[in-house]
Amino acid sequence: MARKNLTVRRALMALVVASVLPTFIAAVAALLYAYTQEQAGFQDGLSETTRALALVVDREIATREAVALTMSGSPTLTRGDLAGFREYALQTAPTRDKVVVLHDLAGQQLVNTRVPLGEPLPKSMNSKERIEAGPMPTVVSNLYFAPVGKQFSFAVQVPVVRQGQVLYYLSVAGYATALQSIMTHQGLPATWIASILDRKGVVVARNKAPEQFVGKATSERLAAQMAQHAEGVFESTAIDGTPILATFSKSPTYGWSVVVGVPLAAIPAPLESIALFGVFSAFLLGGALLLAVATGRRLLKPIERLKDASQALGSGRLLATESTGLSETDLVLASLQEADRRITGATEALELRRQEAEAAAAQVGQSEARLLRLANTIPNLAWIADAEGSITWYNDRWYAYTGTTPAEMDGWGWQAVHDPAVLPEVMQKWQESIRTGQAFEMTFPLRGADGIYRPFFTRVAPVSDTGGKLVQWFGTNTDVSPLKQAENELREADRRKDEFLAMLAHELRNPLAPIRTAAELLRRLDGTDASVMKASQIIARQVGHMSDLLDDLLDVSRITRGLILLDKERVDVGVVIASAIEQVRPLIESRQHTLQVDDRHPGACVLASRLRLTQVVANLLDNAAKYSEPGGTITVRIAPSGDRVSVVVQDTGIGIAPDLLPRIFEPFTQAERAADRSQGGLGLGLAVVKGLVGLQDGSVSASSEGIGKGSRFEILLPLMVTGESAPGQQTDPHPTESPTETLDILVVDDNADAADALVVLLETFGHRARSAYTATQALAVLQRDGFDVGILDIGLPDMSGYALAARIRELGLPAGTLIALSGYGQDHDKVASAAAGFSAHLVKPASPDVLLEALAAVPARARTCQYQAHVDPCRAEPRHPLQI
Question: pTM to 2 decimals?
Answer without folding.
Answer: 0.33
